[in-house]
Amino acid sequence: MKKIDFEVHFATQSWVDALYANEDFPQFRHDPASKNRRLFYFPGAGEPYGDVIIDKLLELGEPRLKLMDEAGIDMAVISLTSPGIERFETKRSVELAREANDVLAAACDAHPDRYAGYCALPVRDVDASVKELERSVKDLGLVGWKTHCNYGDIYLDDKRFWPILAKCEELDAPIYLHPTMSKMEELRTYGVALAGPPFGFGVETALVMYRLILSGAFDAFPKLKLVLGHYGEFLPFLMHRIDWAYARPHVVADIGATPQLKRRPSDYLRENMWVSTSGNYLPAAFQCTKDTLGMERILLGTDHPYDSMQECMGFLEGLGLSEAERTMLYESNAAALGVKL
Questions:
Q1: Is 205 part of any domain?
Q2: CATH number, domain containing residue 216
Q3: 146-168 pLDDT tens trace
Q4: Residue 340 is assigned to a structural domain of this protein
Q5: Domain residues for 81?
Q6: Which own/partner contact pairs does 88-94 have at CB distance under 8 Å and 24+ positions apart?
Q7: Domain for residue 341, yes or no?
Q8: Total structural domains in the chain?
Q9: What is the set of active-site residues?
C-alpha cells in the first residue's frame, strides 16, 4: 500500500519577508528577553519559531523527500503554513496567495508522484478568492483549499465567504480547516501554552466547524468536504453531546430556540468531515475517533515540520490495525478527497 500524508506544511520566502515587514499582526519579531524569534499572531501570543522550522518549511526538494523516505511516506499533500495569508492587507494577500500557489504547483509538477497541494486564498477579497481557487484547481492541479480557524476578527461561517464554499463544492475541492492562534483574548492570557497547539488551536477550530454546521452551510452545500487535523479537534468525543439541542424534547418543542437544520449536528460531522492523525498520539483518542466516525474517515497526517513524521508513523504502526484498516488510513480514504497515487 501507499502512504499519503494529508497534513504537511511549507512556506515561501515572500511569506517570511511579509511577516517581518508587517506592522500589524501577524508578524515575526524577536522577544526582548530571550532574543528568540517568535511568530506573534496577536499581542502577547508568540509562538517560538527557530531557524530549523523556517528552513524545513522553505525546503521543497531532496531534503524533504529524504525525510519522507525515512518515515516510509510516499506522498505529501502540502499547504502553506499557519497563519497563512488571510490576515495581510488585501492587495498583499492576493499577491502572496498567487505566488504561494505557483511555488507549490511547481514543486508538485517537479515531483508528481510525491507531492500534491492545497491552495491558499486571500479570503477578504471573495471574488479574487473564487477566481484563484478555480485557477489553482483547474490550471495548477492543486486538490483543494487550506484555510484557518479565524481571519483575525471573523470566522469562515460568515455568509460573505459562502461564494468560496460554493466554488469548493462545485469543484469537489476539499477544505482543510487548520488551526491558528485563537482570536479570543481569554485564550491568549498564557501565551502559546493556552492559545496554541495544546488547547486553543483545537478549541477554536472545533468551534468554527460547529459554527459552519449551525450556520446552515452544509445544508446549502451538502457535498462540501471538510478535513480537520488532530482527530477532528476533539469533536468525535462530543458526537453524542453535540446533538443535545436537537434531541431534548423541551428544546425541540420551542421553535426558534435553535437554528433550523435538515439533519442533526452529528450527521454533518459523520457525512461532511474527515480527520487526520496529526500531532495526537494517544491510543484512546484514535480509538474514540474510529468508533464514532469510522475508519473510513481517518487520514494520515504528520504535521511536518512541527511534529515528527517518524514519531507519527511509529505510533500508527503500533496500534495493531488490520491490513484493511491500514490501507484505508494510508491510501484508500484519500481517494474520496481526490488524492490518488
A1: yes
A2: 3.20.20.140
A3: 999 999 999 999 999 999 999 99
A4: no
A5: 4-335
A6: 88/18, 88/22, 88/122, 90/122, 90/124, 90/125, 92/18, 93/122, 93/123, 93/124, 93/125, 94/122, 94/125, 94/128, 94/132
A7: no
A8: 1
A9: 303
